[in-house]
Amino acid sequence: MKWRSVALLMVVAAVMTVKAQEERTITVGELFDLVESNSKTLQLQKTSVEFAQQGIDVAKNKRLPEVSTDVSVSFNGNVLTSERNFTDVHGYSVPHLGNSFALEARQVVYAGGAIDAGIRLAELEHSLARVGESLTREQQRFMALGQYLDLYKLRNSEQVYAQNISLTERLIADIKEKYEQGLVLRNDVTRYELQLETLKLGLRKVQDRRAIINHELCNTLGLTGVSVSPDTTMLSLAIVASTEQHWQQQAIVAAPELERSRLQHACAEQLLRLARSEQLPKVALVAADYMNGPFNYDLPPKDINYNYWYVGVGVHYPISALYTGKKRVRQALTAVRQSHEAAAVAAEQVNNRVQRGYTLLQQAMAELDTRRKSVELAQQNYQVVSDRYRSQLALITDMLDASSMKLDAELQLVDARISIIYAYYQMKYLTGTL
Fold first, then answer.
1. Minimal CA–CA distance to 90: which of 102, 99, 100, 82?
2. Residue 183: its pLDDT value, please?
3. Using alpha carbons only, how large is the chain's radius of gyration in Å?
4. Among the listed ranges 18-22, 96-100, 149-153, 174-178, which one has the minimum average pLDDT value?
5. CA distance 99 to 111
6. In the chain, domain spans
7. CA 135 to CA 417: how far, in whole Å?
8. Which residues make beta-bridge pairs with 102?
């Protein structure tokens, strides 16, 4: 019997833990607000957007002049001279303290479009990061909404189990009374006691599942010590009846996956532009000023500082680009074609997902009609059995079965309404309008 005591303690501890949590009713709007402010995954993506924005500033720096300076102090050794055959060696004393100062400036005036392409590429990467943020926001919202609606369904399942446990306990009490009167066998009592234990185990599994989902949802929402209670008024949400064509058009305009594929294609085109710019010369205005000492180009060296400067135009052209640049251009052209094909694949996948989601939404609406009819039939059956039971023409088992059927039908109707809400929000998620 020890294991039963341990199991009882575990159940009591689980119940006390649930009661210790603060019950908080959250609407769908509040759910999305909490995701926006507390989701760590979304915050990470927002940081990526900030990083990409700084990348634009870095790319624009290439339009600014490059200015560099170099200052050095040195110790100079004496000069030794000789003939080319290493004879007639002479030594000269030089000023040992040396100094050097250089100031150089370079302003690129033509880079074959590389600078503009680099800036445009950085801007596209920033746009891609923002699309990634939108996609992450949609994903986090939809994931949280799915957990939120699962909590609603699990609460309904708890009600079903609790009601069935209550009905089974009443049935066992009635059968035990009949067993004492000698009207039923002991195995009849045992059969229903086994059913009661199965129901209690099922209830425990549902409660544990709800605790797991509640914990995961609270982590996403940044909540602690809270038992999330869904807003029951959302069952009255008016579902706008739209055609599949309407949803498909929404997806074409707003789906983040399609926008991302378009931006990736634009990035590939800019990379092609960069590859082509490598085959073009680079032109820059240059200016420099140097001051060095001592003057070591005379014998004996002179202990003086000498200064010289220049301005001019510099042209740089990598000759190797004549035979390496073509391969890079061909690779970039392939990347452009690949991105175009990837965009077509993404459009096809989004189209398929929207069609599937729309079909499931219609299916959920059809199921709702079926569940309404089931509730109507279950209520009629309950009324008939109740009248027969009051007239002593039906057994308590018939009454309990009818009551259980009615409860199951009513809760399945609620679950069907929740399924419609889930399918509707799934369509908004698939079309990027969540």
1. 82
2. 66
3. 40
4. 18-22
5. 35
6. 31-64+111-281+317-430
7. 27
8. 70, 290
Average pLDDT over residues 266-283: 89
Distance from C-alpha of 147 to C-alpha of 136, rounded to nearest angstrom: 16
Residue 395: what residue type? L
Span 112-132, average pLDDT: 90
- pLDDT at 320 > cutoff 50: yes
d(CA 274, CA 112): 8
Please compute the mean of the pLDDT values over residues 135-147 and round it to a whole number: 92
SS (H, E, C) 76-143: CCCEEECCCCCCCCEEECCCCEEEEEEEEEEEEEECCCHHHHHHHHHHHHHHHHHHHHHHHHHHHHHH
**CA atoms of 277 and 316, how far apart (whole Å):** 12
pTM for this prediction: 0.78
**Class of domain 31-64+111-281+317-430 as given by CATH:** mainly alpha
Cis amide leading into 300 (omega within 30): yes
Both structure tokens of 160: 């079903």
- 229 membership: H or E segment, kind and range: strand 226-230
**Nearest one of 121, 129, 120 to 50, comparing CA atoms:** 129
Q: What is the pLDDT of residues 58-111, one digit of tens each?
A: 998 888 888 999 999 988 888 888 888 888 888 888 888 888 899 999 988 888
| 294 prior amide bond cis, ω within 30 | yes
